Amino acid sequence: MYRQNYIDIPSSVVQMVLVFFGKLMAAKLPSEPVKVPGTTWSFSMNPGPFNIKKHVLLSILANSGSDSPYSILIMVVRKIFYKKYLNFLIGLLMALAIQVLGYGFAGIFMKFLVYNPYMWYPLTLLDVSFYSALSVVCWFWKHSVIAQLIGSGRNGFGIGSFTFDWSAISGYIGNPIAYPLSTIVNTSVGFILFLYIICPIAYWTNSNNARHFPFNSLDLFDKNGQHYNISNIINENDLTFNQKGYESYSKLYISVVYLFCTGFGFAAVTATLTHFIVFHGRETWRQFKNAYDSGNSTREDVHNRLMKKYNHVPQWWFYAIIFSVIGFGMFGCIKFEKQLQLPYWGVLLACLLVMIFLLPIGVVQATTGQNIEFNFISEMLIGYIYPGKPIANLVFKAVSNSAMSHALYFMYELKIGHYMKIPPKSMFVAQLTGGIISAVVNFCTSWWLISTVENICDPKNLPKGSPWTCPTQHTVYDNSIIWGTIGPRRVFFPEGMYSKLFYFLFIGVIPPLLVWAMSKYFPEKKWIKSINVPNIFGGVLFLLAAGAVNYWSWITVGVLFNVIIYNKYKDWWTKYNYVLANGLDLGIAFQFLLTSATLQINDIYGVNWWGLDVGDHCPLAQCPTAPGVSVEGCPTH
Questions:
Q1: How many structural domains does the chain have?
Q2: Residue 633 lies in a domain
Q3: Is-contact 76 473, C-beta < 8 A?
């Protein structure tokens, strides 16, 4: 999560390792019972052959907490960017609590998002079955800002840019071979609409002085086009907003891509709610009314019938997890108020948000494979209610976002267990244990990493080729300034220059209604129901951390396998498509582990040549194009 090129260690890596060790242990370990001294209990170290159910259960145990908890970002941002102390124990306990909170919510919504046969989770097929980006344009026009803006695959339009790096293709958006064609098409439509129509119009018409700043940048800027100096607007002793400093310094400005990514994020959330109501509302209401009636809570299919022979996990187990974590969270906010800034009621509000949005967002993920970003709503809400407190904003987002993302991932795993007929109580133990272990390991590893890697998250002072540039952490830090320190009231509505951005909340409502009306008026046109508006709006949000080169490469590979190869070589596609998808992810994962263990641990990042740069060789793409704006390293127009 700290690397410029995001590396995802897929579950298939764990699955392969488990096959070897599982079969080895089944063959070599003794099967005689081992008695626990002083009790009548006994257990066997080798209870039988290593079968597919044991394999699946162990994989879920290992992968249940594979995504890094958002709460860790609080520690990173507070210690590295704000340079403030954070108690190790409260950070660790917070990571543990937030990790298991999502599992409680997952248990509550299982009937709707796991047992429902229409919630099929496309990416489960993978389990059941950068920047090395180059731009031709930038090679030929090395001194032209406009040309490099057009050609840059990271900060511009990506015309003529390409990459063969699989981690750049699949690392941010996901494995394109595994997604259904409808998801690829919807994402492509949103990407083209966003990057080649809306953003260029806003930029070249100089809307909100857009040309005074880079076209696509994660950085924050002042009125003169320089990087925003956060120390001018924050009280260093308690990390609160300095109103006088802000008034004497400058309003905050962001790049046009950053701006419209936020707008599309707003639209994605309201589009998700609308899509859920019109397409799934009636079915969900029927399930809700019958949720606790035996045999009538979900539509029967072969998987539900076969799973009836197992005892299900009692609902009170999940409620116990939720209320325990809420109680601990409220206590932590009271006890460590100076470090966390969030009042106790913030924990309750965050959990209420999850209860409202988990079902509609879960439906979109279960049917398209794409996750809708939820953080825009959470950071906006707490930003209005409790402004001027950046750490409070982060903690609120950590509770709400982590609970949401972990709940969705746990339900994804529960669906795998459902398909593979794993006993629900065994799944409960495996997922909960895996999540707890993962939270401890992730937090301790991150604490060690930021304590030992010199200049981590500081690209200007890192060695050439170092991957520790922390794009995700920079985004979180910037968001804490926008939504926490300054607050949405001053940046957006009603006092900010970006107040019209909130129109996207209403824009997101209209397209799903139109698609629904078209599907009713033209029922014979089956393709209409494949139009997924939340996917169109939400699919572009990775542009903040990725770039056009990632999207074009992702789209190309997705179309190649899911259109051309699928239509011409369907037998090959059926047999090898998902195997190849796993194989490519495996190759990147093993290469990452090998180079990290042998080279990067010794500060060796590669041969000293032009391709070692983590950029895309288009440095001028980050320059403003407005006349008279002077920025170091950029030509003045």
A1: 1
A2: no
A3: yes
